[in-house]
Design a protein that fits this description.
The chain has helices at about 15, 30-45, 60-75, 100-105, 110-115, 130-150, 160-170, 175-180; strands at about 5-10, 55, 80, 150-155, 190, 200. The protein is of the alpha/beta class and about 200 residues long. The protein has one domain (about 5-200): Phosphoglycerate mutase-like (Rossmann fold). Strands 3-2-4-1-5-6 form a six-stranded mixed β-sheet. Helix 3 (about 60-75) links the parallel strand 2 and strand 3. The chain binds 2-phosphoglyceric acid. 2-phosphoglyceric acid (2PG) binds near residues 21 and 115.
Length: about 200
């Protein structure tokens, strides 16, 4: 039996727009972000996808994205599971700083290492590896069993928590996943085998 896993990154947030490191800070979606979330809902509906279960992070940009998707899909009165295990990577001391200002202060290369290396955390924050260490166990115990049972599960989360899942599901190396940008408004739809292995990625 195969199940379906849908991964969605939140729409553009106020801090994406202002080019600020965000992490566990909690900005709202912009108008564009609201539109992207609605567009995701329309795409999923047009693809005939009917999710059974819904997960999101503890942060409002992902929660609001999920609410907007459900609204577009005409889905009401469902249980939404929120867990900080799906939160964005914690950006530590960089949170709230402008990304260009950080490059000016610490240099292009250092900022790139903090943003896109696998195991070097930003000061006081989490590397992608550390993010995966909390996101993957949660996925394995709380989400994957439902997909394995043949259900369709929708997860609305963040660029780096989703990178951790994509890396595991697609079997990517750290080098490969760090080059992968998870776009806003572009759902990733996987069919997974009962053992969690990737059967196919479905285009929507
Ligand atoms: O600021 C953040 O929290 C993330 C996602 O917007 O940024 P980055 O692209 O550096 O992972």
């Amino acid at each position: 039996m195969t199940g379906t896993l849908i991964l969605v990154r939140h729409g553009e947030s106020e801090w994406n727009l202002k080019n600020l490191f965000t992490g566990w800070r909690n900005p709202a979606l912009t108008e564009k972000g609201v539109g992207e979330a609605r567009e995701t809902g329309r795409k999923l509906k047009a693809a005939g996808i009917v999710p059974d279960r819904f997960y999101t992070s503890g942060l409002r940009r992902a929660q609001h994205t999920l609410d907007l998707i459900l609204e577009e899909m005409g889905i009401e009165n469902v249980t939404i599971v929120r867990n900080t295990a799906l939160n964005e990577r914690d950006y530590g001391d960089l949170s709230g700083l402008n990304k260009d200002d950080a490059r000016a202060k610490w240099g292009e290369e250092q900022v790139l290492i903090w943003r896109r290396s696998y195991d070097v955390p930003p000061p006081g924050g989490e590397s992608l590896e550390m993010t995966a260490q909390r996101t993957l166990p949660y996925y394995e115990t709380e989400i994957r069993p439902h997909v394995a049972a043949g259900e369709t599960v929708l997860v609305a989360a963040h660029g780096n928590s989703l990178r951790a899942l994509v890396m595991a599901i697609e079997g990517l190396t750290p080098e490969q996943i760090l080059k992968r940008e998870i776009a806003t408004g572009e759902p990733i739809v996987y069919r997974l085998k009962a053992d969690g292995a990737l059967d196919e990625r479905v285009g929507v």
